[in-house]
Amino acid sequence: MFTTDDLKTLFAAFAARMATERDHLCALDGAIGDGDHGIAMEQGMAAAAKAAAETEGTLQDICNAAAKGFLNAVGASSGPLYATGFLRAGKALGPVTSVPQAQVLSIIPAIRDGIAHRGKAVPGQKTMLDTWHPAAEAVIGGATAAEVLRTATEGAEATRAMTATLGRAERLGARAVGHPDPGAVSALMLIEEILARIVPPPAD
Amino acid sequence: MQTQKLINDGNLAVDEMLAGILAAHPQHLWRPEHAPRAVIARHGPRPGKVALVIGGGSGHEPTFLGFVGKGLADAAAIGNVFASPPPQPAVDAALAANGGAGVLFMYGNYAGDVMNFDMAAELLEMEGIEARTVLTTDDIASSPVREKRRGVAGNVFIFKAAGAAADLMLPLDEVERIARHANARTFTMGVALSSCSLPQTRRPSFDLPPGEMEIGMGIHGEPGVRRGPLRPADEVTDEIMDALLAEMGASRGDRVAVLVNSLGATPLMELYILHARVAARLAQAGLSVHKVLVGPYCTSLDMAGASITLMHLDDELTRLIDHPCDCAMFRQG
């Protein structure tokens, strides 16, 4: 079973990973954006993890607290997007204190839905959705963890060749081609953390 | 190598700056106790008046909070460096400034700001307060399509016109119309000579080699339309003025307001060198200069570079631009 403690550990893992990758993500963002993506993700996930850790209640309560924590800490673009994603993830897990391991992957399509709803984006626009969307579709199609990881990795990598049509990189036109989208790269890191901690890792 | 900054802790930079600003300008600004990132005009908000609430990321000072005061904006929502504020500070700012005649949110056109302020507007609606939005889109280098352009230094003129309209107690419909009209007639283009660096990273946000400049650079260091060798001031000014005048499509005898803005590190000497050429080009085009601002009005931390803004005035905008205002970092009349 996947418990509230496991969920808190997952948010803590998100925070630790974003802290580690902060400067790398900022450098990616500097090439095609404003250079602060790593900072927003680090601060947002730190606040999400703190709010999650301090919340007693159901899996949904913890996701809601993490969403609010992330949003109020950073704003930016990632704030509303991940906050909405976490709210949907909480709905998918439900007002319970544990779910079977098999249900945990449902947070990937839920986060995808929240991000797409809030950002009004579609796949192919060189955004974080280009990672979340193929991963979500793989989960819905019953793929193994290894397959989900592979599609997410391909999705993030594919943003390299895309021209942005949404977000700050949009104004760059062809100059953004050749650079991966930093939001897609951080999304892949989060999916890696979900897969590594919740299900038997891909190596099994 | 890390850039040198007079800060204590990169993560505290915005809040420590706010503490300093509130300590320096208590006669202009106050902050609700429960809302550390909402800054409200001491004078200005009053019953029956549309509340003009501006906001966005920090690092552009005196934009946004320096333009909060009587005759201009009623409140500002303050984000982290280069990041939109979350919805809550915008809600807090709007509630503190609300005079019962509706709220107008004005901010630059960036995806993050739009999401956060739209969420704020939804939250205000739930409280029965009407909130409308006018995005500023004056950066002509950022897209051929007006609605997709970024909002940059031209904000000061656009906010000024809308703030004057609100101060004249015009209704929300009128303030919104004037804000859109002011935005449609304001045109900005900039050039960057060096990168800024964020307080949290203290590393250049982008790589601009010595001897190069970036034309059309955004105010967060977003790459511009092209990169090329640094040229003398007159040549750079000519390239910018050619683009601005072509966009503006003014007739001889028309009036303009001019802003020659520093992106942070470029000194007044260079701004006035630019303005000498701007003035010559405007005279050559037969345009009369009604108002000139020269200085740091919309910065990008420590970026070197400048932007030039032209507002194409008509009788209505001229009156509004001339309306008195008294803000912590901008006074007139």
Automatic annotation (TrEMBL), chain A:
Keywords: Kinase, Transferase
The keyword Transferase belongs to this UniProt entry's keyword annotation: yes
One matching Pfam family: Dak2
Any Gene Ontology CC annotation: cytosol
SUPFAM superfamilies (alphabetical): DhaL-like
Enzyme class: transferase
One MF term in the entry's GO annotations: phosphoenolpyruvate-glycerone phosphotransferase activity
E.C. designation(s): 2.7.1.-, 2.7.1.121
Biological process according to GO: glycerol catabolic process
Kinase among keywords: yes
Record domain DhaL: where: 5-196
PANTHER family: TRIOKINASE/FMN CYCLASE (PTHR28629), TRIOKINASE_FMN CYCLASE (PTHR28629:SF4)
Name the record gives this protein: Dihydroxyacetone kinase DhaL subunit
The species this protein was found in: Rubellimicrobium thermophilum DSM 16684
TrEMBL record, chain B:
GO terms of molecular function: ATP binding; glycerone kinase activity; phosphoenolpyruvate-glycerone phosphotransferase activity
Domain (DhaK) ranges: 9-330
Top EC class of this enzyme: transferase
Statement: the UniProt record of this protein carries the keyword ATP-binding: yes
E.C. number(s) listed in UniProt: 2.7.1.-, 2.7.1.121
Cellular component GO terms held in the UniProt record: cytosol
GO terms for biological process, alphabetical: glycerol catabolic process
InterPro entries on file: DhaK_dom, Dihydroxyacetone_Kinase
Keyword ATP-binding tagged: yes
Range of residues in the leader sequence: none
Keywords for this protein: ATP-binding, Kinase, Nucleotide-binding, Transferase
Pfam (any one): Dak1
PANTHER family with a match to the protein in the record: TRIOKINASE/FMN CYCLASE (PTHR28629), TRIOKINASE_FMN CYCLASE (PTHR28629:SF4)
Protein name (database record): Dihydroxyacetone kinase DhaK subunit
Species of provenance: Rubellimicrobium thermophilum DSM 16684
Upper lineage: Bacteria, Pseudomonadati, Pseudomonadota, Alphaproteobacteria, Rhodobacterales
